[in-house]
Amino acid sequence: MKGFTRTEKRFSLCGLSCALCSMHLGGYCPGCGGGAGNQSCAIAKCSLEHGGIPFCWECPEYLCPRYEGFDDGDSFVPHRNRQQDIAQAREVGLDTYLAQLEEKRAILDKLLAYYNGGRRKTFFNTAVYLLPLEDLRSVMASLDSQPELSEQAVKERALAAVELLQEAADRRGISLKLNKKPRKR
């Protein structure tokens, strides 16, 4: 969108964690306002109309009608945590939240580099996106405490990582599947 730019590309205008998005990681999307990509975003246009606010929650009209049904389905990333992530960023401060997001990104990078047999990218993205940081730290510590894993084929390492992540999700009642948007009628 002409005239719309953002300096922060890890956490979107609307509260999605771009740093953990598979499209962003793959170089297919630079994040809102970062150049090529979804530049026709109605929320970006709204930001411009409201003086270029960097995050929607800073707008006095937030939560506005643009968000009706926004979290009902997922895109490349889960939308379920968006409101919770916004609340956390506001509570701990943006810099602290971004540091936590970077730690999650490092965990995701490690999962993709050492535990992805080519078929787990979406699962790992979703798990890192939805699970609390303390659970991810615990999963990684458990994986790191099993030196025999490094000698196994990537398929077996992937299964071990998936099992631990799924157990963490099950303990919290979190589904690690992306939700399809309901059809408009």
Order of helices and strands: HHHHHHH
The major beta sheet can be summarized as: none
Alpha carbon gyration radius: 18 Å
- What distance lies between the first and last C-alpha atoms, to the nearest angstrom? 29 Å
Number of helices: 7
Determine the mean pLDDT: 85
Q: How much helical structure, as a percent, in the residues?
A: 40-55%
By secondary-structure content and strand pairing, the structural class works out as: mainly alpha
Uncertain regions: pLDDT < 50 for 5+ in a row? none
Number of strands: 0
Sum up the overall morphology in one term: elongated
Q: What is the number of independent domains?
A: 2
Q: In what range is the share of β-strand residues?
A: under 5%
Structural summary, described in words:
The protein is mostly helical. It has 2 domains: 92 residues, no CATH class; 71 residues, no CATH class. It is 46% helix and 0% strand. 26% of the residues are buried. The mean pLDDT is 85.
